[in-house]
């Protein structure tokens, strides 16, 4: 932690391996559960400030069809998009948290 000067620039990604490029997406509840635990780990092991400022993003078959519900979860701060980033629907994913 002492080697990082601005945790606001650190992004942590959760990507369940079974969801990458498979068309199978974590449910919003599954993603939230893991992201919440990652943030709690940062709170216990680093600091409140870091836990609150690190962005925890989800990756794994994110589409225009599932991004709104995923983005509505408290601890889902954004996405790591693969296949859908090559399609016009990418703009909808970008705007999912707007
Ligand atoms: O691994 C990913 C991005 O690096 C996710 O890819 P997909 O969105 O195609 O599942």
Automatic annotation (TrEMBL):
Query: Domain of life here?
Result: Eukaryota
Coiled-coil stretches noted in the UniProt entry, renumbered to this chain: none
Gene3D superfamilies, per this entry?
Answer: Aldolase class I
Record has Aminoacyl-tRNA synthetase as a keyword = no
Its pathway is: Carbohydrate degradation; glycolysis; D-glyceraldehyde 3-phosphate from glycerone phosphate: step 1/1; Carbohydrate biosynthesis; gluconeogenesis
Classification via Pfam families: TIM
* UniProt KW keywords: Gluconeogenesis, Glycolysis, Isomerase, Lyase
| Alphabetical GO biological process terms | gluconeogenesis; glyceraldehyde-3-phosphate biosynthetic process; glycerol catabolic process; glycolytic process
Which GO terms fall under molecular function for this chain's record? methylglyoxal synthase activity; triose-phosphate isomerase activity
Q: Which SUPFAM superfamilies does the protein's record reference?
A: Triosephosphate isomerase (TIM) (SSF51351)
Q: Does the keyword Lyase apply?
A: yes
For this protein, what is the EC number? Answer: 5.3.1.1
Q: Give me the Gene Ontology terms describing cellular component.
A: cytosol
EC category name? isomerase
Catalysed reactions, semicolon-separated: D-glyceraldehyde 3-phosphate = dihydroxyacetone phosphate; dihydroxyacetone phosphate = methylglyoxal + phosphate
Q: State how it assembles.
A: Homodimer.
Can you tell me which family this protein belongs to?
Belongs to the triosephosphate isomerase family.
Instruction: Tell me the function of this protein.
Output: Triosephosphate isomerase is an extremely efficient metabolic enzyme that catalyzes the interconversion between dihydroxyacetone phosphate (DHAP) and D-glyceraldehyde-3-phosphate (G3P) in glycolysis and gluconeogenesis. It is also responsible for the non-negligible production of methylglyoxal a reactive cytotoxic side-product that modifies and can alter proteins, DNA and lipids.
PANTHER family xref list: TRIOSEPHOSPHATE ISOMERASE, TRIOSEPHOSPHATE ISOMERASE A
What protein name is recorded for this chain?
Triosephosphate isomerase
